[in-house]
Amino acid sequence: MDERKLEYFVGVARELSFTRAAANAYVTQSTLSASVRSLEKELGVELLTRSSRSVTLTDAGARFLPQALELLDSMDKARREARASDEALTGELHVGVLSGLAMVDLPRLLGEFHRCHPRIRLKLETSSRGTAGLLQSLRESRLDLAFFGTTEHESRLRTVPLRRYDAHVVVPEGHPLADREEIRLSDLREQQFVDMPLGFGQRTMTEKVFARADMSPNVAVETVEIAAIPKFVEQGLGVALLAPEFIGAELRVRAVPLAEKSARWTLCVGSSSTRPLTAAVARFLELIPAHLAPERGF
């Protein structure tokens, strides 16, 4: 199977755009499109659904993408072994990150990785759907690895926990619950909440905690910035389930322990377990511990 055709297909699958994939590969769009068509003819299936406005993977394309990546990895490994050399790693490394992540010093981490492996092109990506979007991209092999928040073991992923966050009930000063030693979920039944949108790890934690008590949170304010949650709480716009690490010392709020002790989520870094662990991903993971900044909270 022609390696270039596979590379072009993977490029389109990752970008979901022939135009961007062609630009990344430094070829014309017509050349790239013809190569992908040729690959589809060779396989006897359509890998992509094309329209004037979008490109999406067919079911066959989604199934073939991990195999294509594995084939490319195998070809690259065979080529390197044939050369019997420890030459520098090459290729691309697609890394997914959460918006606002500061506990991992990404600039220094990426800088060290680049200095160690200058021939690898790093591409950072975020998702407007937070953890849910990043996990989907990992499972569909659009990302090589990603930082995400989770409340449970994620299937088909190799995960490395970086930090656990235990949430308290955050209320503004002067709130009727502010002087409690602890707060039960049942005390929050009539409260409005400030939280992140559905799909983010923080929101997933809140939904699961309430679901276990056969309740559901009344989320009145949503924000994609976790550090903004206590600021909205301070203004009396709602209460929140949030780890104290996210609360600035200057804010006039109180973090009261939750009686059920069941609200927690974990910041992780992970890669797909359905694909072999590449040398580039392994080298990146090895560098992370030296670039953690726990004093930053998140």
Automatic annotation (TrEMBL):
Q: Which family does it belong to?
A: Belongs to the LysR transcriptional regulatory family.
Membrane-traversing stretches: none
One Pfam short name? HTH_1
**Which PANTHER family does the entry link to?**
HTH-TYPE TRANSCRIPTIONAL REGULATOR YBHD (PTHR30419)
- Protein name listed in UniProt: DNA-binding transcriptional LysR family regulator
Q: Which GO terms describe its molecular function?
A: DNA binding; DNA-binding transcription factor activity
What CDD domains does the entry give? PBP2_LTTR_substrate
Q: Which domain of life is it from?
A: Bacteria
Q: Where is the HTH lysR-type domain?
A: 1-58
